[in-house]
Amino acid sequence: MAEEYPCVYCERNVSENDRAISCDECERWQHLSCETGVSLRQYRKMMKGEVEWKCCECS
């Protein structure tokens, strides 16, 4: 059975193929399109570990 990772904003599951980011504080996930305020360029830097980010609940 696959583990579920609900988005902290929309509560839908974050799948392996979704563009989503993990909060550096609580380690929960949020879809990139769910009011993160993160551009695609910033997202790519995050995937390299260059930028920290906090979810809508921790910020």
Summed up:
This is PHD-type domain-containing protein. With 59 residues, the protein is mostly loops.
Overview of this structure, please?
- The chain is mostly loops and 59 residues long.
- Helices cover 14% and strands 10% of the residues.
- Strands 1-2 form a two-stranded antiparallel ribbon.
Q: How would the blueprint of this fold be written?
A:
Blueprint: E1 20-22, E2 29-31, H1 40-47
Antiparallel strand pairs: 1-2
Q: Major sheet, described briefly? A: 2 strands, antiparallel
Output the strand order for the largest sheet: 1-2
Helix count, DSSP H or I runs of 4 or more residues = 1
What is Rg?
11 Å
Count every beta strand, where a strand is a DSSP E run of 2 or more residues: 2
* CATH superfamily label: Zinc/RING finger domain, C3HC4 (zinc finger)
The arrangement of helices and strands along the chain is EEH
Give the uncertain stretches in residue-range form: none
Helix share of residues? 10-25%
The chain-level mean pLDDT equals 88
Shape: globular
End-to-end Cα distance, whole Å, is 32 Å
Question: Any guess at the CATH architecture?
Answer: 2-Layer Sandwich
What attributes does this structure have?
59 residues, little secondary structure, Herpes Virus-1, PHD-type domain-containing protein, metal-binding, zinc, Znf_PHD-finger
